[in-house]
Amino acid sequence: MSQFEDRQKGQEAKFAFDAEKKFKAEARRNKLLGFWAAELLGHTGDAADAYAAEVVAADFEEPGDEDVFRKVSADLKAKGLSIGEDVIRQKMATLVAVANEQIAAEG
After folding, report:
1. I want to staple 52 with a disulfide (CB 3.0 to 4.6 A). Which of 34, 84, 86, 95 is the partner?
2. How confident is the model at residue 1, as a pLDDT?
3. Distance of alpha carbon 37 from alpha carbon 7, whole angstroms
């Protein structure tokens, strides 16, 4: 049974590692999305940092990406910018790939 238990522990550890990596990538993606949107909104410096943090925090409202999407979309619309939903969603998809690359490079 020792081999079976070792294999099970290994799989559990891999699952935990993968889940943590996914969480980090999503948080990084949200931060990058926040900086992208901050630039469109005209925020720089500390204001851009604060806005990116707001976008990251928005992800804790509900499971999935819709809370982040709604925040960014609403903020852009409130500023009078006509950035389409498809553009925001495509940016989110692009940035998750960038975030995964950055995390992989960090080790």
Report:
1. 34
2. 61
3. 44
Identify the residue whose tokens are 């099970």: 8
- Please give the mean pLDDT across all residues of the chain: 92
Of 39, 52, 51, 30, nearest in space to 99 by CA: 30
> Please, which residues have CB within 8 angstroms of residue 98's CB and are 6 or more apart in sequence?
29, 32
C-alpha triplet 29, 77, 57: angle, nearest 5°: 35
Look up residue 77 and give its two tokens. Answer: 């619309």
What's the Cα-to-Cα distance from 56 to each of 41, 61, 64, 74, rounded to whole Å? 17, 10, 13, 15
CA of residue 6 relative to chain centroid, distance: 33
Q: What is the CA radius of gyration of the chain?
A: 17
Contacts with 85 (C-beta within 8 Å, 6 or more apart), sequence order? 69, 73
Query: pTM value?
Result: 0.85
How many angstroms separate the CA atoms of 12 and 98, rounded? Answer: 27
Amino acid identity of residue 96, one-letter, is: V
**Cα 97 from Cα 10, distance rounded (Å):** 27
